Amino acid sequence: xxxxxxxxxxxxxxxxxHTHVMKLLVMKDILVWTCSTCASSFKQGLTKPHxxxxxxxxxxxxxxxxxxxxxxxxxxxxxxxxxxxRKKAFTFSLGKGQVIKGLDIGVSSxxxxxxxxxxxxxxxxxxxxxxxxxxxxxxxxQFEVELLSFKxxxxxxxxxxxxxxxxxxxxxNNPNDGSTVHVHLEGYCGERLFDSxxxxxVVGESEDMGVPLGVDRAMEKMQKGECCMLxxxxxxxxGKEGRxxxxxxxxxxxxxxxxxxxxxxxxxxxxxxxxxxxDFSAGAKQKGTQYFKAGCYLQAVVQYQRxxxxxxxxxVGKEQxxxxxxxxxxxxxxxxxxxxxxxxxxxxxxxxxxxxxxDEKNEKALYRRGxxxxxxxxxxxxxxxxxxxxxxNPSNRAARSQVSICQRxxxxxxxxxxxTYANMFQKFAEHDVKEAEGSVxxxxxxxxxxxxxxxxxxxxxxxxx
Length: 465
Known about the structure:
Blueprint: H1 10-13, E1 21-27, E2 30-33, E3 65-74, E4 79-82, H2 83-86, E5 90-93, H3 101-108, E6 115-120, E7 141-151, E8 153-154, E9 161-167, E10 180-189, E11 192-202, H4 213-218, E12 227-232, E13 254-264, H5 274-293, H6 297-311, H7 318-341, H8 345-358, H9 363-375, H10 379-392, H11 397-441, E14 447-448, E15 461-462
Antiparallel strand pairs: 1-2, 1-6, 3-4, 3-5, 3-7, 6-7, 8-9, 9-12, 10-11, 10-13, 12-13, 14-15
Helix pairs in contact: 5-6, 5-7, 6-7, 7-8, 7-9, 8-9, 9-10, 10-11
């Protein structure tokens, strides 16, 4: 370290590590201690080298999926674990208690591409118990860590809503569907701020207040006091129509910074009596129809799903059984129609199947399932559904027309297959002919069989044609 100039660097870090997690940056032989709380313990600091960090200086946030390479050692240098040895990077959710506290705190201070050493006191590692047989009790540990990448938490299977938590909320209580929430939100389209306000809305009905579905759906994952960034794909923003009110064009990605100030939970399903469930179901049915007519199909689905969640497991007497079943049939049929509009054909089939479990001759369910199967090019299955519709209602002209379409599609598909296979076999035949012609026209160079081990001829030149 001779000739290296030293200076304090803790002011530059911009992030306060806990006093029990000491962070060191390593480049070649230069060791840099950047713990902002430990400067008073030393008369001189150490210099900070330049690393291949991310250009924007962005750091992972709580809940992000972070991917790292690490090597864990005891202070005597004995290695107890290494992702490098396994040749497979390690991924975990930051701040969720999936790793020891020292790693959670340390990695949260790093930038993409950064390498560092973390020294973790026992209370931020494995504590008095240790982790036998490799880690003894009350062991201080050293981790060499490289932050490879990080990305936000996906709140939907299709990746349409991504959350990154800036400030962790209080406790473990979340709003549920139907809760009244008070939030502060700021909406961005690109770099432009188009919406900034405090607003109250009912979870599941945010559209009424001009708040997109993606923000609405994220509420059930948030805690009071939480501030997060939400990255919304058009499906969960303002869709293909955009929103003239905010000058948002079609199919625009949006970013919202949302703070959950407070909320009042709605009653859970098990807290509701049958009369309340039926009354709420009637309201949800009306609200769903309103959203459907406005083209807000996902918002409509939320309403119909409420009905199913309230009544699907409800055991009632014969007097109310028909009323409950009618609500369930309507909810699932309407969800099937919404998913048809959204081109989610697998979900159309799923909801129609549930209707047919209750009413095997339901004309609308058979027809909508047939439509979904036709769109999925399952022509034989679709034709079977439309024929079942005709058995239920022989005068259904639409179903009769669809049978004809299926028959035509099946014929076209067969003709296409015949042409495809004919072309394939023709190409194979042409290839075989060319290979045969090539083998006659191109002589193989003479070989001396005596050079070929084990041959019965010796010292004879043979030329193959």
